[in-house]
UniProtKB/TrEMBL annotation:
Alphabetized PROSITE patterns for the sequence: FE2OG_OXY
Cofactor: L-ascorbate; Fe(2+)
Lineage: superkingdom: Eukaryota
InterPro entries, per database record: DIOX_N, IPNS-like_FE2OG_OXY, IPNS-like_sf, Oxoglu/Fe-dep_dioxygenase_dom, Plant_2OG-oxidoreductases
Organism: Gossypium raimondii
Protein name (record): Fe2OG dioxygenase domain-containing protein
Catalytic activity: jasmonate + 2-oxoglutarate + O2 = (1R,2R)-12-hydroxyjasmonate + succinate + CO2
Amino acid sequence: MNKLHDWPEPVIRVQSLSESGLKSIPERYIKPATDRPSLNVEEDPSNMDVNIPIIDLTGLSEDGNNLPQSTMDQISLACREWGFFQVVNHGVCPGFMDQVRETWRSFFHLPMEMKQAYANSPKTYEGYGSRLGIEKGAILDWSDYYYLHYLPLTLKDYNKWPAPPDSCREVIDEYGKELVKLGGRIMKVLSISLGLKEDRLQNAFGGDNFGACLRVNFYPKCPQPELALGLSSHSDPGGLTLLLTDHQVPGLQVRKDDKWITVKPAPHAFIVNIGDQIQVLSNANYKSVEHRVIVNSDMERLSLGFFYNPKSDIPIQPMEELVSTDKPALYSPMTFDEYRLFIRLRGPKGKSQIESLHSPR
Ligand code: OGA
Ligand code: NI
């Protein structure tokens, strides 16, 4: 833990670099050739029409029931094959979603001194940040971010939330309430679709003591997008992620059969993805899939990742209903606190962490 004391190098805001108008990016943002995005593959017609499944949640009740069987089947298939889907008619008001995104955009467009007041450290990562991981000399991602806790209430600290722009804290609070509600309903749907009782998955997260946090990603324009990544390949370490993106500006790519598929977000959809903790709890029935973000030279992009996580100090292991002699437990127990130390120290590294959890058999 003590290693997470401070950043290993002076922090550089990617937004400042971008706004300085440089024509070529500094070396520390240049990815090795194997990790660079092949931006022209996007023109590959075999790939153009592919998208993650879009699922209509019309009729979803508070208890996670009432969805037609065909919708439940789509969700189950999406979680097994993609680890990702988008939801529409999810009950969160579209106008409010726009307001939240634009409030955060105003934050990132504040003068740098005002943002620096919220500069974060690797100890908790809360606040305004520009890197993930503390390895000296690491190749960095082309993005800045803001990270904060909603739950548990013991970690919620308004002083670590931005005060300007006006109303920011209220908007964030309201957004948290809405997403906790939506997240809870999706947890029930996932539980049922795994063949379990509706509260089983939530109980495995620690019941009412689950955690929730927000990471707002800001991807400035990049003069050499073919050499960089906005966010390196990773799977989300937590439970369930609800992502709100800029629908005009694509950027998120999901790995599918060894290809990178660019997500085309439906207007006012949330992109939902399975995190590592649900992969573990479901004994790999549901997959936490690698994803990354590409950047571009003419538009900034903003996204809000809301992470619905297990209570951080309880052991997470495959649920016994999903373990049998034919399908033994694939993972050894670990708390989420222990688990997330890896990404906090080493930064985004594909799926190497969850693979290291495989129980020896
Ligand atoms: C994340 C993430 C994707 C995006 O924050 O974990 O994967 O589109 N974000 O910004
Ligand atoms: Ni992610």
